[in-house]
UniProtKB/TrEMBL annotation:
Protein name stated in the entry: LysR family transcriptional regulator
Species this chain originates from: Streptomyces flavalbus
Family designation: Belongs to the LysR transcriptional regulatory family.
Lineage top rank: taxon: Bacteria
UniProt lineage: Bacteria, Bacillati, Actinomycetota, Actinomycetes, Kitasatosporales
Occurrences of domain HTH lysR-type (ranges): 3-60
Matching CDD domains: PBP2_LTTR_aromatics_like (cd08414)
Length: 269
């Protein structure tokens, strides 16, 4: 079946608001129309996406999966439309995806100084699928942190940094100057295999509320600093590697120039 993008956008609005009325207001359509469109969408997909009650709307497992998939689908469509408009006006654009805590601004400034006629933009890379913006066309280059799926990618190592344990200020480990992995034995860890959270903000909120400890790169801890959390170096934890990545079959001069400039700027920034 063909996926109806209009209905997908309607579904995303309901999923984000968890309320038909507020979603309808955002979409500038009547609530009964929105309800009918979502019901039609569920029939087309042959599965329930939402559980409706008198007070709220919750996502089914299928709905949660579709909402996650929709982020990339809609972003990819938006990026494709932007490329069409760029081609229509003869513009060149370079889009860089970046992982949480990594800063690509020095590289972009250096590149713009060399190519002032090229428009640049950035898109965030979600930590559990950092390579997705490269594969779905939203970005031509990624400034990413391992691990990620590097199949079919050309990868240029840039830097390595220590990892720290993020703990609540009242946690017994918060007063330590440094930790080892053995110190974390028996602690509940909020890591990728055990719990995928939608954002680092959510992960740190869980840490602050006592749900566990997060082991993260130092730059991430610094970027999301908050007074109710402490980050303590873990001396024997594997260092986090940051790198530039592009699709291996992309050889355009613009990309080569950016990689050259970015490698120099980021390694010595």
């Amino acid at each position: 079946m063909d996926l109806d993008l209009r209905k997908l956008r309607y579904f995303v609005a309901v999923a984000e608001h968890r309320h038909f009325g507020r979603a309808a207001e955002q979409l500038y359509i009547a609530q009964p129309v929105l309800s009918r469109q979502i019901s039609a969408f569920e029939r087309e997909l042959e599965c329930a996406l939402l559980v409706r009650t008198t007070r709220s709307v919750e996502l089914t497992d299928a709905g949660k999966q579709l909402y996650e998939e929709a982020q990339g689908i809609l972003a990819s469509v938006t990026a494709a439309v932007q490329r069409v408009h760029d081609a229509d006006r003869g513009a060149q654009r370079l889009v860089v995806a970046f992982s949480p805590g990594l800063h690509v601004s020095d590289a972009l400034r250096a590149f713009t100084a060399r190519h002032p006629d090229v428009e640049t933009d950035v898109v965030p890379a979600r930590w559990w699928e950092q390579d997705a913006p490269l594969r779905d066309g939203r970005a031509q280059v990624g400034y990413l942190r391992r691990p990620f799926d590097d199949t079919g990618l050309r990868v240029i190592p840039i830097s390595r940094e220590p990892r720290v344990a993020c703990v609540p200020v009242a946690h017994p480990l918060a007063a330590r100057a440094e930790l080892t992995s053995a110190d974390l034995d028996g602690q509940r860890m909020l890591d990728v295999p055990r719990r995928r959270t939608s954002s680092l903000e959510e992960k740190f909120e869980l840490v602050a509320s006592g749900h566990g400890i997060a082991l993260v790169p130092l730059s991430v801890a610094r970027s999301y600093s908050r007074p109710d959390l402490v980050h303590v170096p873990v001396t024997d934890a594997p260092r986090a590697e940051a790198c530039l990545a592009v699709l291996a079959d992309r050889r355009q001069k613009l990309l080569r120039d950016f990689l050259e400039v970015a490698t120099e700027a980021l390694r010595h920034g």
